[in-house]
């Protein structure tokens, strides 16, 4: 049984307590848990296609609207297949400190009878697959409007294999070295968001800014798509966070509650910050704030209490607002759709504050195993974030530089000016 | 004959059309246009980046009228299209040499 995430870990402890007082019951399939996890899996897939695809599609210029949707769609397909071939095994197939091995490659042993905790292993594998799908898809926001499609496919495959699957094992896999240190990452603040955000920043730096950036206006072409996408992300995130309990239980219920609260608080925080500093509360702002809140509560979803969630939401809304509107301009990188500004920074804020608001004194569900005190938990969280940042930055840089030499990362100037929809796909988003 | 061309705010179109019908104007051509005057453009803000939009959406009306009706038509448009705020638009009056109704071949005043 994979030692995975707060919910299962807690239930394992429960089983150990039972063992002390009597014979442990054999693991049995729980239909309620299974029904919820089937639903949660569908919800997480909804986050990428259509959620993220629409969120990003609205923010690019009209001539690139199909290209980002295509990237999200193709990543979904490619990551799914690679996850089945070996990604799942690398992440969850064994007990190594740094990777899980190939014991479950080609989904060996994944029969209809196989269980993971109280749910079928097929459901657990597919649930994890949807995480492996959305993480590389998030990175698309950093290099939107300028990357070659073939390079994107190569990057997705290599990054998933060399970065996502190992880091998932570190934090969630049995024997993973960060899990052993007591890192709390309930639904992927470090594994998904910091990981994707940092890879996105590296990609934005390696590819360079879009032609004309920042002198030429590049406003979103259709914010109604963006708000629709953000709304679907919000709904789908219940599967992401409450599903990470891997059971239909109280932890899942609380994860759902804190997800809603942190997201609402972050949306209001970004909206208010914008209102104060620019005079008007923008729709893109409130939608971006909601995504920032979703990101930041993700690692804390299984451990923070409701009031902790509100605090995390406010911090994420303000922090990501600063990163996306000020930091980006000050430093001059072209993180086109704020992959780093929202996911990297939001994931970082969430991961660190997870260490604070897990404390029972602050309404949390408890610190990590063997961790004494908030200070130590925050230090452990910082270690998890720092290790992920260092590894993903270096590995992403190596992958991108290598790909640039072999296949070329960037489209030609002519293709970029024409728009990727026509230049790369011979199609247009709008024929009006 | 004169051609009265008016550039107005889009949301004033219905009011202007109704007012013109009341003074006896029988035909108007409407075009969606973009431009700027003293209002200049306006600023849009996306994630902290300000974009100055130079050309604002406006509606252009072309009305061909008999000479005797010009004053009244101009006054009517001014009255119906005015909000008192910047960007209400402009009216141009041009000489019109000929008008022909395609269906019948009528020309001049008959064609209006």
From TrEMBL, chain B:
Keyword Disulfide bond: no
This protein's UniProt keywords: Nucleotide-binding, Phosphoprotein, Transcription, Transcription regulation
PROSITE patterns xref list: PII_GLNB_CTER, PII_GLNB_DOM, PII_GLNB_UMP
Coiled-coil blocks: none
Entry keyword annotation includes DNA damage: no
GO molecular function terms listed in the Swiss-Prot or TrEMBL record: ATP binding; enzyme regulator activity
GO annotation, biological process: regulation of nitrogen utilization
SUPFAM superfamilies registered for this protein in UniProt: GlnB-like
Entry-linked Gene3D superfamilies: 3.30.70.120
O-UMP-tyrosine carried by residues: 51
Pfam families: P-II
One cellular component term from this protein's GO annotations in UniProt: cytosol
SMART domains recorded: P-II
Family: Belongs to the P(II) protein family.
Subunit annotation: Homotrimer.
UniProt name for this protein: Nitrogen regulatory protein P-II family
